[in-house]
Write a structure and sequence with these properties.
Distance between the termini of chain A: 9 Å
Strand content of chain B: 25-35%
Number of domains of chain A: 3
CATH class of the largest domain in chain A: Alpha Beta
Helix content of chain B: 25-40%
Helix content of chain A: 25-40%
Order of helices and strands of chain B: EHEEEHEEHEEHEHEEH
Number of domains of chain B: 2
Number of helices of chain A: 10
Strand content of chain A: 15-25%
Strand order of the largest sheet of chain B: 1-2-3-11-10
Shape of chain A: globular
Mean pLDDT of chain B: 88
Number of strands of chain B: 11
CATH architecture of the largest domain in chain A: 3-Layer(aba) Sandwich
Oligomer: heterodimer
Structural class of chain A: alpha/beta
Chain lengths: 310, 204
């Protein structure tokens, strides 16, 4: 199977269809297309050896093509609550800085996450967070809280946990965290000073490393079908997805895909999704009701579990 | 202490066990003061943070923010009894929204027109009496507005989980103590001592 690399194209709307056609001819996948005015952003997976060809076409169109290491990663930004203490800064700034390298982010405000002794998370919230690939917890300014009190919110979280906060701590000091990034504490202003922007850059770079680790783990026992292929088939076989109004109606994850269509109406169609190889999706993946609204969550089984890969 | 006018933010102390956290918190307070436009009204402020005890204490001494504002302070009111109209020519733009709101309440929107930004015309049969009333009408009370903002400010800067609160607003002094646990009396006493200390700070 060809190795795919994630890239982001930014350029004018004019003739950008040529690039999409080229990508399809090469066997790559278009993950997301965002048109804003006369500009277009394309997030795509390009076969590694064909990247120079796509670059050449993008140069011809006077666009810019950059690597987007977080493409196909769905990240949960978990803030203790959705009160003005955390939003829009710094939780939204963190989410925004992760979207530019290609990630899809969801903001999750816990119902009772605030405080020291009283903070807690609910079963429903933990399950919702676990549907993602990586969770980023945005905490405040006090090291005492981050080290001693807040880690109880990590209980029951099975995905990698990234923590942001004000003080300059080491990852080992925060129990349960897979990564800690300082200098992004509670603020009431937009993060735009040099040290703050550096911290955000560091955050997205380090999260990129975590995503790579997960991918590397996955490559030892690869998925029976890559999520991008499922995405293309859904687009071809379920036309209703084109009229779904949710942002990113098909959200890729490292080991699955979130389909933003109502579960009851569409889950059978998704289960019976056919591939050219003659198999249907329910043989390759677990399809369940998502904790997010009434969406459909597809988690793809590994090759060892299914016995073959397509 | 009234013999000398305080500068705005002449004392601004944030106290915490860990120095770097002080700086973070100072920034949060600065930002919130700015976004609520409170900075000119605050003379001295001291904040003490004790995350170990889940305690947040804040004392503020406000500057003199001026007295109540009447229409006559911000506008010329002229009565035209023959035309059955009152013409208000506004001099200070700042209070137009408050003035219009009061006038709408008394005379109804239908009877008020605003031919240009700084002129308001009211149609009334008793223009003389009404003009006299409007001249003495209270338009805005800066103290009231500051009180509202001050409470909002206190809630915004307190760590979010600290939902047990005590506050006292008397004259130009404001005390705010918040915690996650039941408030201890000595914390409030401490805050009162801080206020005393802050009051004395300008009288050296």
């Amino acid at each position: 199977m060809a190795v795919l690399s994630p890239y982001l194209y930014t350029g004018g709307v004019h003739k950008h269809g040529l690039l999409i056609e080229l990508l399809e001819d090469l066997g790559g996948y278009l993950i997301q297309k965002v048109v804003t005015g006369t500009e277009v952003n394309l997030i795509m997976l390009i076969p590694k050896k064909d990247v120079p060809i796509v670059k050449k076409q993008s140069d011809k169109l006077l666009g810019i093509i950059t690597e987007a290491p977080l493409t196909g990663v769905e990240i949960a930004i978990v803030s203790p609550t959705l009160a003005s203490h955390h939003l829009p800064h710094s939780a939204c700034d963190v989410a925004e800085s992760l979207r530019s390298p290609g990630a899809n982010t969801n903001m999750i405000g816990l119902a009772r996450g605030m405080g020291r002794r009283v903070s807690l998370s609910m079963d429903y919230e933990r399950k919702l967070i676990n549907e993602h690939d990586i969770a980023v917890f945005t905490f405040g300014a006090f090291s005492d809280c981050i080290i001693n009190k807040k880690p109880k919110l990590f209980e029951g979280i099975e995905i990698p946990i990234v923590v942001t906060g004000g003080p300059d701590l080491k990852t080992e000091e925060v129990p349960g965290a897979d990564l800690y990034v300082g200098n992004i504490g509670r603020t009431s202003h937009r993060l735009r000073k040099a040290d703050e922007v550096n911290a955000l850059d560091k955050l997205s770079k380090e999260i990129g490393k975590i995503a790579d680790d997960i991918r590397r783990q996955q490559s030892k026992d690869p998925l029976s079908v890559i999520p991008a292929k499922v995405m293309t088939e859904i687009e071809n076989q379920i036309p209703e997805i084109h009229s779904a109004l949710s942002p990113a109606p098909l959200t890729l994850q490292l080991d699955g895909i979130r389909v933003k269509l109502p579960y009851d109406e569409f889950h059978e169609k998704i289960e019976k999704l056919e591939f050219d190889e003659g198999v249907i999706l329910s043989e390759l993946a677990n399809i369940s009701r998502s904790k997010m609204k009434n969406y459909i969550l597809i988690k793809i089984k590994s090759k060892s579990e299914v016995g073959f890969a397509i | 202490m009234s013999e000398r006018q305080m500068d705005s933010l002449e004392t601004f102390v944030v106290d915490s066990v860990i120095a770097s956290e002080q700086e973070f918190y100072r920034k949060i307070i600065e930002d919130n003061l700015a976004s609520l436009k409170l900075a000119p009204a605050v003379g001295r402020i001291k904040v003490v943070l004790r995350p170990g005890d889940s305690l947040f204490q804040m004392v503020i001494i406000l500057r003199d923010v001026g007295s109540k504002i009447k229409t006559v302070d911000i506008a010329d009111v002229e009565s035209k009894s023959f035309a059955k109209k009152i013409i208000i020519s506004i001099k200070t733009e700042q209070y137009i929204p408050e003035l219009l709101e009061k006038l709408w309440e008394f005379y109804g929107k239908a009877n008020i027109s605003q031919p240009d930004r700084l002129t308001v015309v009211i149609s009334t049969d008793r223009s003389e009496e009404e003009a006299a009333f409007i001249r003495e009408m209270m338009v805005a009370d800066p103290r009231h507005r500051i009180h509202e903002n001050l409470v909002d400010f206190a809630i915004r800067v307190t760590p979010e989980g600290f939902r047990v609160r005590y506050h006292l607003y008397k004259g130009n002094r404001f005390i705010f103590v918040a915690s996650e646990e039941a408030l201890k009396n000595e914390w409030i006493v401490e805050a009162e001592e801080m206020l005393e200390e802050l009051t004395g700070a300008g009288e050296k």
